[in-house]
Amino acid sequence: MIKVLLALLTSFSITFVAIPSIIKVARMKNLFDEPGDRKSHNSKIPTLGGVALFAGIIFAFTFWSAESSYQPRQYIIASLIIMFFIGIKDDIIPLSPIKKFIGQLVSAGIIVFFANPVDDPTKSFTFFRLTNMVGIFGVYELPVTVSYILTIFTILVIINAYNLIDGIDGLAAGIGVIASFTFGIFLFMVENTVLATLAFALCGSLIAFLYFNLSNAKIFMGDTGSLIVGLILSILAINFIEANINNPKTSEELSEFLQLHFNISNISIDLSKSAPAIAIGILIIPLFDTLRVFFFRIIRRTSPFRPDRNHIHHKIIALGLNHKKASFILYFVNIIFIALSFSLRNLHSGQILIILAILAALSSQIPYMLAKYKKSNSIS
Predict the structure, then answer these.
(1) Sign of torsion, CA 214 216 221 223?
(2) CA distance 49 to 219
(3) Cα 159 to Cα 283: distance, rounded to the nearest angstrom
(4) Which residue, of 182, 188, 276, 349, has the fewest CB within 10 Å?
(5) Gap between the Cα atoms of 231 and 234, Å rounded
(6) pLDDT surpasses 60 at 317
(7) DSSP codes of every residue in 208-246
(8) For the chain, how big is the Rg over CA atoms in Å?
(9) 3-state secondary structure of 286
(10) pTM of the entire structure?
């Protein structure tokens, strides 16, 4: 517990101290995000916040997990370093989409092909490769090749979905805090101290970053930050799913933790059938918003990768709310979906996903209905 808290405090301190210096350097070197038609800001803002995030996360994680023999640790660090250089290059001199994709693919490949135990008879489950769909679409255990492809695809989707919600002050960082804290609590309860350290190192850095980004942003995280945070969240999400599905001890450890620390007797927590849906519930804002935006772009016969202002945060801003209020609304929605996902844990993942999809679709229509109501009132 102490190391996990120290990781949070260490990453917070490093990020908090580093950001003012980074802002100063960005101003000296003219490294700004320029305002424009699609931008939500009206002035030049430094874009190198991801450098401070990376520094806080990588130092805290490396330092406070140094004594561990946890095999995947070195590959997680290697993958993060690659993602950092892809992001910083893109923030300073924009990269082509294909080069960014290749960098993401390499990082994902390191996690999927190297971070999992190989030929270890003591391990009945992988750490970072999806192996079972628990009945979603009628699919259960996955063939090895399909498992590798699906896991890499999942990592790429989460990274880019997180990148796409970084459109207004405080939103991406706040969603990252909520998700990393949720995964971190779970990992701590099942005694995965190394990944809990990573989750809380991420949480601490993002909290520090929020101080400079939430209201009247002084700095943006840029692609450096969003790519790193997205990668870590994908690692945590896949581990959450895999541990619950294939490690029988996970349910026992969760139940024992709650009984011991909260004096809850006769409780049994089994997420083996619901873990994929719960992971999606934790990341509902970036995942559903990306799916929704891509769907409407395809319906309009435009490229799904063509930027526009149809993200849910843009629609909330269009109602007249400022960035801070819009971000807090989406924080609240995210927390509600997380609570709902866990409350439905005894259902199968497919059933939970249907419920989440319906509620998310209905919720996403609220800004449109409010805008229509506001417009009709102004006309009358």
Answers:
(1) positive
(2) 6
(3) 11
(4) 188
(5) 5
(6) yes
(7) HHHHHHSSS-S---HHHHHHHHHHHHHHHHHHHHHHHHH
(8) 21
(9) helix
(10) 0.93
DSSP string of 26-57, one letter each residue? HHHTT-EE---TT-S-SS-EE--HHHHHHHHH
By the 8 A CB rule, do 46 and 218 touch? yes
Task: Please give the helix or strand (H or E) that residue 85 lies within, else none.
Answer: helix 73-92
pLDDT category of residue 119 using cuts at 50, 70 and 90: very low
**pLDDT surpassing 60 at residue 38:** no
Identify the residue whose tokens are 């070197």. 29
Spatial CA neighbour of 368 closest among 282, 287, 296: 296
DSSP-assigned beta bridge partners for residue 46: 32
CB 220 within 8 A of CB 47: yes
Q: Which of 36-45, 141-150, 309-318, 329-338 has the lowest mean pLDDT?
A: 36-45
Backbone angles phi, psi at 14, to 5 degrees: -65, -45
The residue type of 211 is Y
Task: Assess contact for 253 and 191: CB atoms under 8 A.
Answer: yes
Provide the 8-state DSSP code for 132: B
Structure tokens at 208: 């520090």
Tell me the C-alpha distance between 157 and 232, whole Å: 13
**3-state class (DSSP) for residue 141:** strand
The amino acid occupying position 274 is S
Q: Look at residue 122 and tell me whether its pLDDT is greater than 50.
A: no
Per-residue pLDDT tens over the stretch 335-359: 999 999 999 999 999 999 999 999 9
Q: What is the H or E stretch that residue 191 is in?
A: none
Structure-token match 């971190």, residue found: 184
What is the pLDDT averaged over residues 307-333? 91
